[in-house]
Amino acid sequence: MAKKITKICCIGAGYVGGPTMAVIAQKCPGIKVTVVDLNQARIEAWNDPDTNNIPVYEPGLAEVVAEARGRNLFFSTAVDEAIAEAEMIFISVNTPTKTYGTGKGMAADLKYIELCARQIARVSKTDKIIVEKSTLPVRTAEAVKSILQNTGNDVQFQILSNPEFLAEGTAVEDLHAPDRILIGGDTTPEGQDAIQSLVDVYSNWVPRERILTTNLWSSELSKLTANAFLAQRVSSINALSELCEHTGADISEVSRSIGTDSRIGPKFLNASVGFGGSCFQKDILNLVYIARSYGLQQVADYWEQVIIMNDHQKRRFGNKIVKTLYNTVSGKKIAFLGWAFKKDTNDTRESPAIFVADNLLNEEAKVAVYDPKVSEQQILGDLNYLQSRNEAKNAELVTTFDNAYECCKGAHAIAILTEWDEFKTYDWEQIYQNMTKPAFLFDGRNVVDKKKLTEIGFKVYTIGK
Ligand SMILES: NC(=O)c1ccc[n+]([C@@H]2O[C@H](COP(=O)([O-])OP(=O)(O)OC[C@H]3O[C@@H](n4cnc5c(N)ncnc54)[C@H](O)[C@@H]3O)[C@@H](O)[C@H]2O)c1
Ligand SMILES: O=c1ccn([C@@H]2O[C@H](COP(=O)(O)OP(=O)(O)O[C@H]3O[C@H](CO)[C@@H](O)[C@H](O)[C@H]3O)[C@@H](O)[C@H]2O)c(=O)[nH]1
């Protein structure tokens, strides 16, 4: 018999744990959902009386949190208590690329997952369903199971894999109406019961035919595969954008032409300065590492090319700026519009803006940044993390603005790094008047009207055109 879930705990109150649990709580008022994290500042921000100050910016999220928080949604640092009382525990901690030891720069670092499993094993006194929400290498559930089943007490654990497919910037929309929910579990009767318990949670708002169930390993691998396919599309279109620039073809026209083939489809064909975000690169590197560890060199090399192409795209955008500005940007103000890795998020992880800025700072440019949702502290932190130069130098060369018009004043060039909608509505005439001439604009996201801006006087470079 599938157990009816009334208490859920989620370990990890980040970009996935926060929004997913907020929506579960919103849609399942009969379930008490407690989201826990070791990071006290983050929990305090989730509990801020003004839901506009919650730590994750996502359209519509503040409203969902306002509806459920304090009713059946709670944020807390009391990890042990929340684990002890829950019937179902989601593990939603970060699984970054390893920065040390074997697999450095490639494999997923599973230390936080293991810590969670050990903590659950230590604290649990009643049977529990453990749900892997984090993105994990295929066969991780085996390790989690091994830790949990060797606890020395007779608590029964079932492990499920339930990867998250939300994209940042549309998280609430994606969670409200997902293309599919994927649940992997053991093929034993107990495993099937656990799957059913989680199906019952999602069935509160997701049509049953959209809930797919598989074995554990298919579910774990499907998450890496989905991201690899999506990133591959971006690298494919970006590869062709460079060919367009040499042949007179226009990448937007090429995208539209191929996207109308129903087998290809129109989505995810926007040429850009490169993909960013915390997932694509990390998950593909992990996939490449797993393939290599099974001796599958051709498989590994195939997928690695997606990353190689992306690095090339980011590098060539920065190089284009330097080359166009008469081969030197030393001492020149370059205004960055956008720092987040995509619009409608305050997340900057692996944002192409960081790498383009780093490239230009190596050339001694003065980088001015405006992003509607990213703070100065975050921008400098992202650059300092690269350790390309000392922190004082970054602080000297980088200035941030809370107004795009001020940011662009006196600049030799503007670089658009994020496709924020507001950039389309600017008074470009006014911006042009206040820039150093010739005024260059490098559109890394195909957001501005090239023809109109060229008429104003800008020298415009757009990717793939
Ligand atoms: N960001 C996305 O859009 C997205 C989408 C789908 C899947 N994922 C996957 O979900 C997972 C989480 O990603 P994220 O972006 O939410 O990460 P995140 O860094 O925003 O959040 C993770 C949180 O876990 C906390 N944490 C780590 N170890 C802990 C422990 N032992 N106990 C309590 N808290 C702990 C951290 O303090 C942090 O707040 C990753 O595996 C990621 O690949 C992310
Ligand atoms: O046509 C496109 C589409 C996307 N991008 C870029 O690709 C990156 C990733 O975008 P997106 O996939 O929309 O955002 P993420 O939040 O990274 O979401 C991806 O990664 C998540 C974490 O695993 C998954 O859950 C999602 O399904 C998957 O889309 C961003 O820099 C985008 O600007 C392009 O350059 N061109």
UniProtKB/TrEMBL annotation:
Transmembrane segments: none annotated. It comes from the Bacteria. One of its GO terms (molecular function) is NAD binding. Its EC number is 1.1.1.22. The active site is at C279 (nucleophile). Residues 335-450 form the UDP-glucose/GDP-mannose dehydrogenase C-terminal domain. The keyword Metal-binding does not apply. Gene3D superfamilies: Cytochrome c1, transmembrane anchor, C-terminal, NAD(P)-binding Rossmann-like Domain. InterPro entries: 6-PGluconate_DH-like_C_sf, NAD(P)-bd_dom_sf, UDP-Glc/GDP-Man, UDP-Glc/GDP-Man_DH_C, UDP-Glc/GDP-Man_DH_C_sf, UDP-Glc/GDP-Man_DH_dimer, UDP-Glc/GDP-Man_DH_N, UDPglc_DH_euk. GO terms for biological process: glycosaminoglycan biosynthetic process; UDP-glucuronate biosynthetic process. It is an enzyme of class 1 (oxidoreductase). NAD(+) binds at residues 12-17, 37, 42, 93-97, 134-135, 168, 279-282, 349. Keywords: NAD, Oxidoreductase. Catalyzes the conversion of UDP-glucose into UDP-glucuronate, one of the precursors of teichuronic acid. Belongs to the UDP-glucose/GDP-mannose dehydrogenase family. This is UDP-glucose 6-dehydrogenase. It comes from Mucilaginibacter psychrotolerans. The lineage of its organism: Bacteria, Pseudomonadati, Bacteroidota, Sphingobacteriia, Sphingobacteriales.
